[in-house]
Design a protein that fits this description.
One of its GO terms (molecular function) is DNA-binding transcription factor activity. By secondary structure, the protein is mainly alpha-helical. It is built from seven helices and two strands; from the N terminus they run ααααββααα.
């Protein structure tokens, strides 16, 4: 007897999610390489282009160790894409923030990612809203992080 976690529909959905994730990372890595960045560097730059943030928060969002983020930010900083600056609300905390060159690079990276944009364009606003809400529900509290 199949359990609810191993029924054919659940297994198919899990497989489809895995395929979506794999294709996303493949395209992201390819787009990053066009800017001489690793996928991880591109993802950090993309996050920072939304808003500057401390290393620990970047690490939480990327589900990795803060020391890894420090190395990534160091490399982005050496290329003039990111800078460290004091957090205006707590000067003891350093924020990583994109430079103008970093914001432009992040924009070009986003513009070069068609994988999600093209299939999503075939969905109506209502369908995209349902998909977003289902994904948020699946992720629970992590969806806003």
């Amino acid at each position: 007897m199949a359990t609810e976690h191993s029924d054919p529909l659940t297994l198919e959905v899990v497989g489809l999610i895995g395929t979506v994730v794999a294709r996303y990372y493949e395209e992201y890595d390819h787009a990053a390489a066009e800017h001489s960045l690793t996928g991880a560097q591109a993802r950090v730059l993309g996050l920072l282009s939304i808003q500057p943030m401390p290393m620990r928060r970047i690490a939480r969002k990327l589900k990795c160790e803060p020391s890894n983020v420090t190395g990534i930010v160091d490399r982005l900083e050496s290329r003039g894409l990111v800078e460290r600056r004091p957090d205006p609300s707590d000067r003891r905390v350093k924020l990583a923030a994109p430079t103008e060159k970093g914001r432009e690079t992040a924009r070009r990276l986003r513009d070069g990612l068609n994988f999600a944009r093209e299939p999503l364009a075939d969905l109506s606003v209502d369908e995209r809203t349902v998909l977003r809400d289902l994904l948020r529900r699946m992720l629970g509290d992590d969806a806003g992080e």
